[in-house]
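Problem 12. The chain below contains 117 residues. Write out its predicted structure in token notation.
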Amino acid sequence: MAKIIGIISIKGGVGKTSVVSALAASLARDFAKKVLVIDANFSSPHLGIQIGLADPEVTIHHVLDGKANLKEAIYETGYEFDIIPGAMIYNKIDPSRLNEKLRDIRRKYDVVLILLI
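Solution.
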């Protein structure tokens, strides 16, 4: 069962995205962990852009809106971890459903990092 770790800061521009991508890469590479990163920074989801996934077809927004399942939103990266990106432009969604959606996928990963706010 995966450990879920949230990285959160209400203030923007403090380095959350950089910290999450570096932490994910280190956990995967240096500690041989299977890592999933979820960009749930609903106001400014830039993790996908940072790793070269600028316009993903399916995002966490689609999953939480019921338009896609969680497995469809997972992308493999060239950085040794998987990602569920956020959508840059999307209607308002209900983030409280995230925990419910994670139940099925938690057995596949050692660590799930969630980038919030």
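Discussion. The first strand starts at residue 3 and ends at 8. Students who got a different answer should revisit the alignment rule from Section 12.3.
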